[in-house]
Amino acid sequence: MTPRRPAGAGAFPRPRGQAQVESPALISPGSGPLYAALDLGTNSCRMLIARPDGAQFKVVDSFSKSVQLGTGLETSGRLSRSSIFRTIQALRVCQQKLKRHKVTRMRLVATEACRRASNGADFMARVRRETGLRLDIIEPQEEARLAVVSCAPLVSRTTEQLLVVDIGGGSTELVWIDLKDVAPRDRARAIMRMHGGFPVPTANGGAARVVDWISVPLGVATLRDQFRDVEDDMARFALMSWFFEENLAEFAPYKDEPSREGFQIVGTSGTVTTVAASHLGLKRYDRNKVDGLCMTSDEIDKVIRDYLLMGPAGRRRDPRIGLDRQALIMSGAAILQALLRCWPTDRLSVADRGLREGMLYAQMAADGVLTDEGA
Question: Is-contact 119 84, C-beta < 8 A?
């Protein structure tokens, strides 16, 4: 499996206003057009339905289901019958929600599992026949770009070097952005404007420059499957972390560790939010407490050590991890630990947001229905 990156890097314009992504708390429908974004990943099927609201958006309805689409993909190279059945059942629920809300503007995408599966295209055709939904299998570059856009509101004004990490079920995207030539007040807005793609020319000499990006075809599900035959829990964790770090060797910024000052990592994934919830000791998950939280490397290491001391049985019983996440948390933690070994920082920002938020923003920005009000 070879990590992927674009042909080149570049910069994008400094916008006039900033549109923040609103917390996906369900609200009553109101006037105005509705937009939908569906992300079918290796492990989960998730959808948001929202409407524009000034410089933000308000979520009207949502859906999330663990479908484990990528189960068995590592060994067979194909999506299994049982995985396809579970996923189509979930997509039927999404189709019903879209119909009930009369949504006409939508972006529905599939990622790594469907990219890699030999029957991925056949599966997409079956989804169209049985649900009426048309999903696009997007390339890693678009997946990375949308994840970056969704995290823009979390970018600090003091950040000069930004690493956005999206740990998925089947792949992990990393985008390194140089912001030192962008005015501090405009840094988050410059990231938001990436919805149109990168590279993009900039005005007035200011530039948010993509130094490098990479898509590693190892996520929480695929990395776990690679080492499923290792019985010892701690040995399996160490092997997973070492193996993931090996796959980062050609990522350009990896070779020269930056100063901690002015450097920020933003992590978006179920792994990162679960580690944050464990750090806070939450008995019930609270997005308002997790999204935007800053954690140090030492705090993250402590949570991971606690997970290892619990062992598999203890992690299954821990309410902070949850039944859906417990089978995947250690492979995700192995990825996170490898990243923090490469780029130690006291400013890892936790993002409870991802492709869906990025897709919603991109659609609304393209239609010109977002304003600069309150930006």
Answer: no
